[in-house]
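Narrative of accomplishments. A recurring question from our advisory board has been how the design workflow behaves on a single, concrete structure rather than in aggregate. To address it, we present the structure tokens for one chain from the evaluation set, followed by the sequence designed for it. No filtering or post-editing was applied between the two.
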């Protein structure tokens, strides 16, 4: 059975035999019944044809060696190879590839694993363009960086959500994507300007060398294709012991990169433990396996061979037993379908089914509905948002571990004179003796908390002095509030008020959903799909509310604790230690400027 037939058109691959050769050269092993074909889900997918032989357990259909995946550690090895070649090459070199890669790392200073990988491939894309300008240069013709050409072409032609041309949108989530695009544009312009300075005597124009469109495409493609691959610490050491030459190369490059303040390395990773095994999670590009499409009800999964850290694609024997003789292999990109995150990361809306999906509903203009609503939330340490949980039949509002109903306590209001209570309650809250000199005067304290009030979601470091209950500071009698929230009947009434407010809010929001009149690129098409989806969700919620408001409450039997923990936008909050560090940094800058 041919892995890729001649009729399959893979974006970025002009001749399928080139990809097959690349797979062989990278020692990627595959089951003889595995094929790469066009997918009904869109783009390319992995398919499997059953044979007469029945497997007795989950079985492997794809094996990618550790040396053929791309993460922040494996990419160090080819960088060292390029550096070694550059140090011994005696011919004419228009632009040294190793220096260009290091300059990208130095300028961008990537602080996440994903962005480290992005930075490397941006450099490889720039190198590819330089080669085209010097087609007869022996230096470029025989470069070790050619090993990235084919996969770079796949990344450059991967379907991605394009850069937003819009400047603003009524939906906060869409605005977040627009802001990300603006940030990327600014970052790109900064890189180009710095590269122009470094290579001002060079033979090329960096804006043509790496266009913003290419830059954004690679960024998006890598974000959408990376997987979280566990790496066993002990087996990794064992593999490195068997490959001491690579270890030495990695050590040398690590010393170089430390000079660039690349602070994210293996020592900073979170260590996980499972059955007496220690492992870390690597953000990784896994060629060929990354052709597998997403399904919540997947039939395959990836695993790691502990003996050598190879990445494996396996099929679930029980699930595939009920599938047709030929089927598409799917994996789950995420344990839960978090709608906004799927759009942001992968550029598509996941299919609805009988499994539950998550949508985050943020109350963007709370003050229009509740006087000083945003300030009340900050002092209550409540995020003005709820989760919508839905599948193709049911829809609910998740209020588990969400204190939003407290906002609707009658008599609760904002205390604009909280500064009068600040000093005493700051001491009490932080257990500071009255005779102890904090070296912080009233004005500094006021500035500290006014800064939090203006810029963050939560106010830390003090009691809720910004709240009044029936005209009196809440902190003088917390028992009344506790009486309300601790009584089930009273709290149920607050929940109903929360539901009433939510329905009123979404009725107003649905009127703001306007059809996209000008489609610049697929981002505008996605907005249209997302708006249609939102309109359907809102109509379903209103219909259910009209029948029985309480039917919208997510039952405890369905609720998962991790939904509120892992699938919600975290609060922006300032730790007092962070505030102190910022102040110390500002003082240092002031001292340097005065000198």
């Amino acid at each position: 059975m041919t892995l890729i037939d001649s009729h399959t058109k893979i974006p970025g691959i002009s001749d399928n035999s080139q990809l097959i050769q690349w797979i062989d050269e990278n020692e990627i092993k595959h089951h003889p019944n595995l094929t790469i074909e066009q997918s009904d889900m869109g783009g390319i997918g992995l398919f499997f044809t059953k044979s007469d032989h029945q497997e007795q357990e989950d079985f492997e259909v794809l094996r990618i060696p550790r040396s053929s995946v791309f993460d922040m550690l494996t990419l160090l090895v080819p960088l060292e190879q390029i550096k070694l070649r550059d140090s011994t090459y005696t011919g004419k070199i228009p632009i040294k590839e190793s220096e260009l890669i290091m300059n990208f790392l130095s300028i961008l200073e990537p602080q996440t694993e994903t962005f480290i990988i992005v930075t490397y491939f941006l450099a490889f894309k720039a190198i590819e363009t330089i080669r085209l300008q010097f087609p007869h240069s022996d230096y470029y013709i025989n470069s070790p960086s050619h090993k990235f050409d084919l996969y770079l072409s796949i990344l450059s032609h991967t379907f991605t959500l394009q850069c937003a041309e819009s400047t603003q949108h009524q939906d906060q989530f869409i605005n977040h994507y627009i802001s990300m695009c603006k940030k990327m544009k600014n970052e790109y312009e900064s890189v180009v300007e710095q590269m122009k300075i470094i290579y001002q005597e060079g033979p090329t124009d960096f804006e043509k060398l790496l266009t913003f469109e290419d830059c954004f495409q690679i960024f998006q493609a890598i974000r959408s294709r990376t997987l979280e691959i566990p790496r066993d610490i002990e087996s990794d050491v064992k593999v490195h012991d068997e490959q001491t030459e690579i270890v030495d190369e990695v050590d040398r490059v690590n010393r170089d990169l430390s000079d660039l303040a690349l602070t994210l390395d293996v020592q900073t990773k979170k260590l996980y433990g499972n059955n007496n095994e220690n492992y870390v999670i690597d953000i990784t590009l896994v060629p060929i396996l990354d052709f597998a499409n997403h399904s919540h009800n997947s039939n395959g999964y990836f695993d790691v061979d502990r003996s050598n850290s190879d990445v494996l694609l396996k099929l679930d024997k029980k699930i595939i037993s009920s599938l047709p003789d030929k089927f598409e292999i799917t994996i789950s990109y995420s344990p839960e379908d978090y709608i906004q995150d799927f759009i942001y990361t992968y550029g598509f809306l996941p299919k609805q089914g009988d499994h539950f999906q998550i949508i985050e509903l943020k109350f963007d203009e709370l003050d229009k509905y509740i006087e000083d609503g945003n300030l009340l939330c900050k002092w209550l340490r409540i995020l003005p948002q709820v989760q919508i949980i839905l599948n193709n039949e049911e829809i609910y509002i998740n209020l588990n571990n969400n204190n939003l109903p407290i906002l609707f306590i009658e008599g609760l209001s904002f205390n604009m004179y909280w500064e009068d209570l600040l000093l005493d309650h700051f001491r009490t809250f932080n257990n500071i003796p009255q005779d102890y000199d904090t070296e912080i005067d009233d004005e500094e304290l006021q500035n500290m908390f006014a800064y939090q009030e203006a810029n963050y979601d939560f106010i830390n470091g003090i009691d809720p002095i910004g709240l009044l209950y029936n005209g009196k500071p809440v902190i003088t009698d917390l028992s009344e509030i506790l009486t309300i929230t601790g009584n089930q009947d009273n709290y149920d009434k607050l929940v109903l008020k929360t539901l009433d407010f939510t329905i009123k809010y979404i009725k107003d929001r649905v009127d703001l959903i306007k059809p996209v009149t000008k489609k610049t690129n697929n981002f505008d098409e996605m907005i249209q799909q997302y708006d249609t989806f939102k309109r359907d969700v809102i109509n379903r919620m209103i219909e259910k509310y009209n029948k029985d408001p309480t039917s919208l409450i997510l039952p405890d039997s369905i609720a998962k604790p991790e939904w509120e923990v892992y699938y919600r936008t975290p609060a922006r909050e300032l730790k007092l230690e962070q505030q102190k560090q910022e102040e110390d940094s500002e003082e240092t800058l002031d001292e340097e400027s005065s000198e």
